[in-house]
């Protein structure tokens, strides 16, 4: 144990002598936090813009979808804070107001829209937008796409109930049909089927700032870990490793003496990011103890992976060769560079397997308010990966030690 502590302190002391290490450890993360925070804070506020609305639709069987779109969707509390909806007298007037820049877009609901909806005919809503304000136009299109999807789902449900009634009248109650019709008219609500699938109660949403900071820490922890690989190569080049192997020092003491220093450095990085993000940008990362636990387990895993890379490398150039694919490959596939939610299914499966992907998933779960019970599987799998690379590291060190003994006997 004393040797383990001695090796850890010795290695940490050598690292702290390097000015570049301080830059990677603290200064660079702080600068990135400030840059990311400034970019996100400048995009938080949305300016209200004007949108024209013209409808030729009319009520059909006591239902008028164009009125629901206008009053319950565009004039709802949330949307009203961004979109200032203005009714126009004609389609041509609306086009003119968009052309001269008075309105960002014109929403046009065609004749018999509600009737076609009820009769299962094709339905569509037109949008004319200002090409110079595409971001605002995309917001209008997103709202309309959501509305269209909502009523389309309700129409499918309505058809299924009607078909069920035709096939087996005894199993369909009038109260269920009336409830379904009521849901169709209330388009601000979700589908009856979809509402059964919900996220965990009291889950906290993850904002862009949180995700970017977490992704950044996970990515640059790999860069920090490669300082370990360089220190191992230094031990080889200055014959320190051979001197250590000639002593009674066990291989696992040398491994952990090196890796614990990296674990400490990565935890300092995480604490730095949490502190700056919390003080400057008021970001919350959930239970700090859980965050540091995940950081320690992940740092141990990535440290042992990098240790193996350092043992196999003959010089610093080879370390750089290892570092590039590991850093960028893991960062991309793990979800540090691109949100994991935007990955196709096959890449999402890979993201859940690799170490930094597991770390990001654990961090996000903690930020949502989840506990150890929700992330323990990922933690156990990270420890299992660490155990595999620990065995590989010990085998490589033992092989080198045997070669040294053979050389001495010769």
TrEMBL record:
InterPro entries: ABC-2_transporter_component (IPR051449), ABC2_TM (IPR013525), ABC2_TM_bact-type (IPR047817). GO terms for cellular component: plasma membrane. It is a multi-pass membrane protein. This is ABC transporter permease. The chain crosses the membrane at residues 20-39, 211-233, 253-281, 288-313, 319-339, 379-397. Keywords: Cell membrane, Membrane, Transmembrane, Transmembrane helix, Transport. PANTHER family: MEMBRANE COMPONENT OF ABC TRANSPORTER YHHJ-RELATED, MULTIDRUG ABC TRANSPORTER PERMEASE YBHS-RELATED. Signal peptide: none annotated. Belongs to the ABC-2 integral membrane protein family. Its main location: membrane. One of its GO terms (molecular function) is ABC-type transporter activity. It is found in: Cell membrane. Residues 174-400 form the ABC transmembrane type-2 domain.
